[in-house]
Design a protein that fits this description.
Elements lengths: L1 H30 L13 E6 L3 E6 L5 E8 L7 E3 L2 E6 L4 E7 L1
Antiparallel strand pairs: 1-2, 2-5, 3-4, 3-6
């Protein structure tokens, strides 16, 4: 009688530990940043203005740079060459998240 009770409790405890470990793993994966993310745009690429569907950038690097607009809630934009001076980058859906080098 006691052997069955101990066995049943052990099985329940083992399941709870397995579920807790799995839940903790999923939670940690969600907060660890991916190491394969592209680097941000160089500091000589500056965002001079921003609206809900576009950003205006100023390239003071002296050479052409390639950047990508990363959006939240929408696919990212393709890489775009930015010549020295001002450029406007726009999109239809999503929210601006960051500017990356590519």
């Amino acid at each position: 009688m006691y052997a069955n009770l101990i066995k049943d409790n052990f099985v329940k405890l083992t399941r709870m530990v397995a579920i807790g470990t799995a839940a903790a793993s999923v939670t940690l994966v969600g907060i660890i940043p991916p190491t394969f993310a592209a680097p941000l745009a160089p500091s000589c690429i500056r965002i001079t203005s921003q609206s809900s569907r576009s950003i205006r950038v100023n390239n003071t690097c002296g050479t052409q740079k390639r950047v990508k607009v990363v959006l939240a809630f929408a696919p990212d934009k393709a890489c775009t060459a930015i010549n020295p001076g001002q450029n406007t980058l726009s999109w239809r859906i999503g929210r601006f998240d960051r500017l990356e080098s590519c």
